[in-house]
Design goal:
This protein has 16 helices and no strands. It starts with about 20 loop residues before the first helix and ends with a helix. The protein has helices at about 20-40, 55-65, 70-100, 110-135, 140-150, 160-170, 180-195, 200-215, 220-230, 240-245, 245-250, 250-265, 270-280, 285-300, 305-310, 315-325. The protein is mostly helical.
């Protein structure tokens, strides 16, 4: 973008499975499961509202332009999501205090314009912070960021760029090393390899990345279809949608759905075995895994999905998803 030759992206074939001791894998999986349980329990309100397709696409394209690995793009989306949720919550909190104290309320239009005018800067700061977490690969310099912003017509100084990063860090209490669905996918693939899965992890991995991109880009329609299936109604209420936030924040559920859908694409004859392994590893119901993989495939390949290959009664899938939603609230 600024005239510098792009370095070669890390090849997917370089990703190694089976190089870590089983004890380490068990500890890491347990840690991820605990993180996921906490995230699901704390999910509420605005969470998930800023994984909009245009925002995700912008982050993905920018990460590709800057030759960042896939994990950085997912991390950047999650950092931006958490930051924007915090901003929305702070605005609502301020408005509540002002109404309680009968003070003159701030102009909502002014607050909205402030968020809007700084949004691209905040987004780029989140990508840059995510690149710094991936210290073993490539960190995006301030010069690269400033040149990019200038190309878009945004003139900022290095000081403003540093202040933007600091605003994001302070807003999130410097907790930006957030888990991403990719971490869950790769951990489960590692475990599947040790469990003797018929479809090799190295074969599933690139397909999982493609489908994970798809779920991020089609986040709203995919989860909307899951919500409609869970309540057996095409017009969910606002309350039902709010309760379903916990399902949207369940990265373990997303990971098993991604892997199951990838297994069906790679070798549908082995799909049942892969799903069985995933159920035994995570404890997630077979019906929930099937329902999620069905939703992903219906929004990607469209036909010959697991639901048609091995029919699952809709009420079972709905019951499983309802159970997941109710247990997370």
């Amino acid at each position: 973008m600024d005239g510098i030759v792009r370095p070669r992206l890390a090849s997917l074939s370089e990703f190694k499975f089976g190089a870590v001791a089983t004890e380490t894998i068990e500890d890491a999986l347990l840690h991820l499961a605990q993180q996921n349980e906490q995230a699901v329990q704390e999910s509420a309100g605005w969470m998930g509202s800023f994984r909009e397709t245009r925002i995700v696409e912008f982050v993905f394209l920018l990460s590709e332009q800057w030759c960042l690995e896939k994990s950085v793009s997912y991390q950047a989306v999650e950092i931006l999501e958490r930051f924007m949720v915090k901003q929305a919550e702070n605005i609502c909190r301020q408005a509540t205090i002002q109404l309680r104290d009968k003070k003159e309320p701030q102009n909502w239009r002014t607050l909205k314009e402030q968020l809007f005018n700084k949004f691209i800067l905040r987004l780029v700061s989140c990508v840059q912070l995510a690149s710094k977490l991936s210290f073993h690969y490539k960190i995006i310099s301030n010069i690269t960021v400033l040149n990019f912003l200038q190309a878009l017509g945004y003139l900022h100084t290095k000081e403003e760029l540093l202040e933007s990063e600091l605003d994001v860090l302070k807003s999130l209490n410097f907790q930006i090393n957030l888990p991403t669905p990719l971490a869950y996918v790769e951990m489960l693939l590692e475990v599947l390899g040790y469990n003797g899965c018929l479809v090799p992890a190295t074969q599933l991995h690139p397909t999982c990345l493609t489908l994970l991109d798809l779920v991020y880009l089609l986040h709203e329609p995919i989860y909307e279809s899951l919500l409609r299936a869970s309540i057996e109604n095409s017009t969910p209420s606002q309350l039902q949608g709010e309760k379903f936030v916990s399902v949207k924040e369940d990265f373990m559920l997303l990971a098993v759905g991604i892997i199951a859908a990838s297994a069906f694409i790679q070798n549908h004859a082995c799909w049942s075995q892969v799903v069985g392994h995933l159920q035994s590893i995570t404890g997630i119901a077979l019906e929930s895994i099937a329902a999620f993989s069905y939703a992903i495939l219906m929004h990607s390949v469209g036909a010959n999905t697991p639901g048609r290959q091995q029919p699952i009664p809709p009420y079972l899938a709905a019951r499983a998803l309802r159970a997941a939603a109710s247990s997370n609230t």
